[in-house]
Specification:
This protein is α/β, with parallel strands linked by helices. The protein contains 17 helices and 13 strands. The two termini are 27 Å apart.
Length: 553
């Protein structure tokens, strides 16, 4: 047996034998290590020791001799048999993954540090601990439903993706840092999302990352090890080659007579809602929107026809502020429109006021051509869940909770194809970028405000996740953010123009055309990953099993 393989077997034996805090601490380190593969770092090789190590820790799950020790009230967690030990391994891995992957959430609490700064340690511990439950359950299912060997390696990848999917919709959903986003640095690799979505890309990624764990198993045949390790990496290579081939024949067609101006005002979140600064904020937006505002003509030439401002760009209720609407209309092209985020307010005779996070379409006559209300709200940011029981305020400006809109819809845009608006958080959800059963829109528009998260990995992670909606649906995506990253992404997921984080700028771009044919993912959605997972299990486990049976006859 090669000396390299013997050393891997020794590493596995060492990790399997760990107990107590060393075991939990190593799981935490492995989880933190996996974060290096996420945007903006994209060090994908870090996933191999992280997931192979997690697999070996699960293999070493064993009952505790002294449940709870001196802390008997913790016996429900510290005691139990090997299944509970497997859960603990997964939970500590998840705690490291989410703590280091989402630490930037603390920036939002520093915007009003006097009121919310003290919450930072509790928020980070709570977020990491809560989402770590999903990975703990994935580890538990992996251990409980498979024996040590190739089946457990395959099951870990399957259960990881299953709980990624659950995390995307349970309790309103939080599909942030899905493992497929590690490939967003490669246009070729993300083409697979047009078939199986980001969850399919997560599956092949985790399968390749965990497969080298087989090299540490002393009792497994060498040929079976090489098959189990080699096939996932061969699949990654084939996906890259297939993606490159698809892009070689990709169209660069644009929509005629449409030129977009993306306005990124770069307003600090701490200043955004200060009453004395609101006129200056509006003037900033107007200056960047004018034809002589210094916009970079980054793709093609010509004056803009459609101007786009970010989420809640206007710190006013436009529908009740006609002077502001008329001032804004002065910079709108004669036959064009402005698409802008702004709060919307309705005062009711009974029951209190209603407040929406909205997107308006306004023409040069200050007429409102359409309005979309955000329907997927952020807990504690836009509303407080269980408000009658939780004595806390939302972190955003004002005391009134936002009201959820009716849902996804396409808006008619004068002079351009219809658009499916997605405000901030809404663009994270695979399979929920386009209204079901309606007319297929010509583009997706994501307006957002990532100023909450400062110069941290958060905005990069957000853009990476949003960009995959274009590749999945085969529909171009335009993204306009207050502080960045603003971009135009074509129907293949390729970024055509992009701003830097934290710059005040307006950029011009043509609007790419949508694909003439609907993607497989558009037709069947996230169910595609189930089909692909079944094929993967047959290839990885079924073929070697049949070969061994034939050899024993």
């Amino acid at each position: 047996m090669p000396s390299q393989m013997l050393s891997v077997i020794g590493w596995r034996d060492t990790i399997v034998a760990l107990t107590g805090w060393r075991r939990r601490g190593l799981a935490f380190i492995f989880g933190g290590l996996a974060v290096l593969a996420l945007p903006p770092f994209h060090f994908v090789p870090a996933l191999i020791p992280a997931f192979a190590g997690l697999s070996w820790l699960i293999d070493g799950s064993r009952p505790r001799d002294r449940p709870g020790g001196r802390f008997r009230w913790l016996a429900w967690y510290t005691g139990g048999g090997p299944k509970r030990d497997a859960y603990r391994c997964g939970w500590w891995f998840g705690a490291g993954f989410f703590l280091f992957g989402l630490y930037w959430v603390s920036h939002a609490l520093l915007v009003d540090a006097a009121r919310f700064g003290w919450l930072i340690p509790f928020a980070l511990a709570g977020i990491a601990g809560m989402f770590a439950i999903y990975i703990g359950l994935a580890a538990l299912a992996t251990f409980a439903l498979s024996g040590e060997g190739p089946a457990r390696i395959i099951m870990l990848a399957l259960w990881w993706v299953a709980f990624e999917w659950l995390r995307g919709w349970l309790f309103t959903g939080f599909p942030w840092n899905l493992m497929g986003t590690v490939w967003t640095f490669s246009d070729a690799m993300i083409q697979f999302t047009a078939v199986a979505g980001v969850f399919g890309l997560s599956l092949v990624t985790v399968m390749a990352a965990v497969a080298p764990a087989a090299l540490g198993m002393a009792g497994m045949a060498k040929g079976h090890k090489y098959w189990l390790v080699g096939l996932p990496f061969a699949v990654l290579g084939l996906l890259w080659a297939g993606g490159a081939l698809r892009l070689a024949g990709a169209s660069d067609a644009i929509v005629d007579n449409v030129r977009l101006r993306l306005v990124q005002p770069n307003i600090a979140q701490a200043d955004k809602w200060k009453r004395n600064l609101r006129p200056r904020h509006v003037q900033n937006l107007l200056a960047l929107s004018r034809s002589d505002g210094g916009a970079a003509a980054t793709q093609g030439n010509g004056a803009p026809t459609h101007i786009i401002w970010p989420e809640t760009a206007v710190p006013l209720f436009l529908q009740s502020a006609s002077p502001a609407a008329r001032a804004i209309a002065a910079v709108i092209p004669p036959q064009g429109v402005l698409l802008t985020g702004a709060p919307r307010f309705l005062r009711r005779a009974k029951g209190g006021p209603l407040l929406w996070n909205s997107l308006h379409i306004i023409n040069a006559k200050a007429e409102f051509q359409g309005t979309y209300d955000k329907h997927h709200l952020v807990p504690f940011g836009e509303y407080v869940p269980f408000k009658s029981f939780l004595p806390v305020a939302k972190f955003t400006q004002g005391r009134t909770d936002f009201t959820a809109g009716p849902g996804l819809r396409s808006l008619f845009v004068p002079g351009a194809p219809s658009v499916s608006p997605l405000i901030c958080f809404e663009a994270l959800f695979p399979g929920r970028a386009v209204a079901a059963g309606g007319e297929r829109p010509g583009w997706l528009l994501n307006v957002t405000n990532d100023a909450w998260f400062g110069n941290s990995p958060g905005p990069y992670q957000h853009f990476a996740a949003v960009r995959l909606r274009a590749a999945e649906e085969g529909i171009p995506l335009v993204r306009v953010a207050n502080t960045g990253i603003s971009a135009v992404v074509d129907a293949y997921g390729r970024t055509l123009v992009q701003t830097r984080l934290g710059e005040r700028i307006a950029i011009d771009s043509a609007l790419p055309q949508t694909l003439s044919s609907i993607t497989i993912f558009s037709l069947i959605g996230n169910k595609a990953v189930i089909i692909f997972a079944l094929l993967y299990v047959i290839l990885l486990y079924g073929f070697p099993y049949l070969y061994i049976r034939r050899q024993l006859r």
